[in-house]
Every structure is written in C-alpha cells, then in structure tokens.
Design a protein that fits this description.
The chain is of the alpha+beta class. It has five helices and 21 strands.
C-alpha cells in the first residue's frame, strides 16, 4: 500500500511502432485497467492515424512545389510567336510584320525564278506556321532578281538552233541576215547583247535580255559583166575577180568581130548568178572565108565538085558542061587562085 492508502500500480511503456509489444505481458502481471477519466482512441487507432499523417505531408509539399514551378514558368518563360507567311511580300512590309517578335533576324540575298521581283521575300526559315520564341534565329531570304543566264557561244550554229537556244534560256533573240563570203548560208556570222555588245560567251545576264544574232545569206549574188569585144585573157581575169568561172570558151566565125574577141556570152550581161557560177563565152574566128581553088584543066562536073568542097558555089554562065575550064569571075572580075572569099560565094565559071 502506497502513501495515502493507495495501492501501488506497475506502469508499462509500450512502443506503438512495435506490433509485438501489444502482446507482451509486463513484469508483475497483466496490464492494469484503464485509469478512470482517461480520454483517447485505443492504441491501434493511434498507430493508423500516425501513418496517414506521415504520407499526407509529403504529398502536400510536392503539390506546392509543382505549383511554384508552374508559376515560375509562367512568370519567367520567353514568349513565342507563330511565323507568318511572308513569301512574296516586299522586304520592308515583311520586316514591319515581324518587328514586335524580337527574333534574331538574318537577311540573305538570292536570285530566284520563283520570285523574280527584286526586294521580295523568297522564303523564310522557319517556314510559316511554326512557332519561334523571342530571341531565336529567323532567316529572311530576299530576291535579288531572277536567276542569271550564261550567254552561250552561237557562232557557226544554224540560225534556227541559235534562236531556239536563246529562247530556252528565256533570252530574246533579235535576228538579222546578210551576205557573207566565208560563212555558209543559214549559219550564224556573229552575235552580241543589244545593250551590252562587249559581253562574250560565258557572261551572265538577266532573262529577257535581247541578243542580236546575225545569220548568213551566203555569198552575195554576182552580176554578170558585159564581156563583148574583150579578149580571152581579160575575160579570165574579170570573171575570177567576181568569183565566177569561165566555161569553154567556144569559137565561131563573125564577119564584124575580129578574131580572138568575144562575140557572145551566156548568161547574158546583167544577169544575177551565185558565186562560182559558170559563164560561157564565144570567141570570134573572124569572117568565115575560103580560098579560091585552082580549076585549071577540070571539066565542069569536076570544077563544080571542088568548089562545093571548098565552100563555094559554081555557076556555069557560058560553054558546055563537058568542056574544059576557061575562066572564073565574080561580079564580072576574074577571081585569082588563093583569093579569100566568104563561104558560100557564087562563082561564075566558063567552060569550052
């Protein structure tokens, strides 16, 4: 019995985290009955409540941290913008459209047939529709004009081929034709850029540049000269200087033109012919004359046959046809042996 007449009580301290402690019997006997007036849940319920509290506190802290991170992202993140479609716009207009986005802008110049207008946007990197944060790189490619064309060499090509080549390069052919003594017909003699004649093959020009192409008509036609009365050496020289060729020559008698001179030509004087054409000339042999033969001792039939063979005509004016030759006259005058007479002259003969 304790002081004041109370009975002593053994006090046992249990570890709430040790399940085996609930079944332990303290020294000196079973545990005492609950103290009158004590309020609280049984020992098992206390243990469960402690575990819930231990789990709940970290979850609350994690949720708070996530909220703070989200708030920080919202407060401190860099704003981004949609890339607009700037293709085809004039450069100054495009720059105004993106001025507030504060991108790290780079402008490159390029040539393009898709956007041949100088100063207009060809493309952007990134392309329209993508998002780009402030301060990120943004490339604007601006046209300097259409792609330049390299001038081809056109000499010695056919005129048709040269024109087709220029048109295939979007250049504008301007054609001319002229006679040329060297370049064959339908071939290109020369060419040049209309506004820049010093440019040569390999130089670059813009589309629609005019290029003059001169095509050959071949050698210039020749006018046949008048060769009448010229001697043969002069004819050869004259025709050679004109690029014409002497054919023949032919020969013929002429009562008016001295021997060795031209009495006729083909083609005639003034005709237009190609270089290298043939010209035929006829050279005079002078009058067509024959020598009077000797009829002495011949009968008329014999004399008639000889005169005909010579080119003369016998006309019996007196005597018998079976007589002997006496005399030959022309217009009443005797014709001596060997005298030159025009072919076909009629000779009066006498036989007795």
């Amino acid at each position: 019995v304790g002081p004041g007449g109370t009975t002593p009580v053994d006090i046992v301290v249990l570890d709430v985290d040790d399940p085996s402690a609930a079944d332990a019997v303290p020294p000196g006997g079973p545990p005492a009955a609950p103290v009158p007036g004590r309020v609280g849940p049984p020992p098992d319920e206390k243990r469960r409540g402690g575990r819930v509290l231990v789990v709940a506190i970290p979850l609350v802290v994690l949720a708070a941290l996530i909220g703070l991170v989200f708030l920080a992202v919202q407060l401190f993140s860099t704003p981004s913008f949609d890339v607009p479609d700037l293709v085809g716009e004039e450069q100054s207009v495009a720059l105004l459209e993106i001025a507030d986005f504060e991108w790290d802008l780079q402008i490159d110049l390029a040539r393009s047939d898709d956007e041949p207008r100088a100063g207009h946007v060809i493309r952007t990197v990134p392309v329209a529709g993508e998002r780009l944060a402030r301060g990120e790189p943004f490339l604007l490619v601006v046209s300097e004009g259409p792609v330049l064309r390299e001038l081809p060499e056109l000499r010695d090509r056919t005129l048709v081929d040269a024109v087709a080549t220029l048109e295939g390069l979007a250049l504008v052919p301007v054609t001319e034709q002229r006679f040329d003594e060297v370049v064959p017909a339908d071939r290109v003699i020369e060419w040049s850029v209309v506004d820049a004649p010093d440019l040569v093959a390999g130089a670059e020009v813009e589309p629609d540049t005019e290029v003059l192409v001169v095509g050959s008509l071949g050698p210039e036609p020749r006018i046949v000269p008048d060769l009448a009365g010229a001697d043969l050496p002069s004819v050869v020289t004259t025709l050679a200087e004109l690029g014409l060729v002497l054919a023949g020559p032919e020969e013929d008698f002429d009562d008016d033109v001295p021997p060795g001179l031209v009495i006729a030509q083909d083609p005639e004087a003034g005709a237009e012919v190609d270089r290298g054409a043939e010209v035929t000339v006829t050279i005079s042999l002078g009058p067509d004359v024959v020598a009077m033969p000797d009829l002495t001792g011949l009968t008329f039939p014999e004399a008639e046959a000889l005169l005909e063979e010579t080119g003369l005509v016998a006309n019996l004016v007196f005597g018998a046809s079976d007589g002997e030759f006496v005399e030959a006259t022309l217009d009443g005058e005797p014709v001596p042996v060997g005298e030159l007479l025009p072919r076909g002259t009629e000779i009066d003969v006498t036989f007795l």
